[in-house]
Amino acid sequence: MAPRIHLVRHAQGLHNVSTENTTIHDPILTTLGQQQCGELQRKFPHHQGIELIVSSPIKRTLYTALFSFQDDIKNRGLKIIALPELQETSGLPCDTGSEPRELANMFRSDPIDFTLVLPGWNVKEGKWAPEKQAIAQRAQEAREWLIQRPEKEIVVVTHGSYRSFDDTALIAAIVVSCVMLLLPLPMSLRSLLRQL
Length: 196
Known about the structure:
This protein has helices at residues 31-43, 59-68, 70-76, 100-106, 132-147, 168-174, 187-195, and strands spanning 4-9, 52-55, 80-82, 112-113, 153-158. The protein is α/β, with parallel strands linked by helices. The chain has one domain (4-15, 27-195): Rossmann fold (3-Layer(aba) Sandwich), CATH 3.40.50. Strands 1-5-2-3-4 form a five-stranded parallel β-sheet, with helices on one face.
């Protein structure tokens, strides 16, 4: 049986404050973004069922995962797996991730598994290109990876424009839970969820 997936869109990052900030490479969360994580931690109704947290390796999603589920991580020993297929879909500096070594160093004291984040994941070409076909392929790989996981309940922290989650096949295949997002859902995803 496919796992129950809770989708979380990252909290407010520095790039969300103004269009000028889209030139910031791999920005972190704002103070408001950190507050949003605290609110999600308090209001998320499924903490006890979570067995795994999976996140895009972009800093704002990693911090959203760490701050929003810190009690689950601390008290129940949960870890976060960074899955590069969940990365943001554009080629803007704000949507381009950091080198694996930089991430491993920055988050060295946090329970994040960077095993799947290989050199080149943040080079926006080939498999990682911000092009429809490459994005669709990454989305398929992410779906297959999630469906094959042994955990029954997984939190996935990703991006609002990650189009794989705007896909009927994914909704039908693995999202059997509520969708918890910090910022508004894309209109097409909202209409799909109303049909479930």
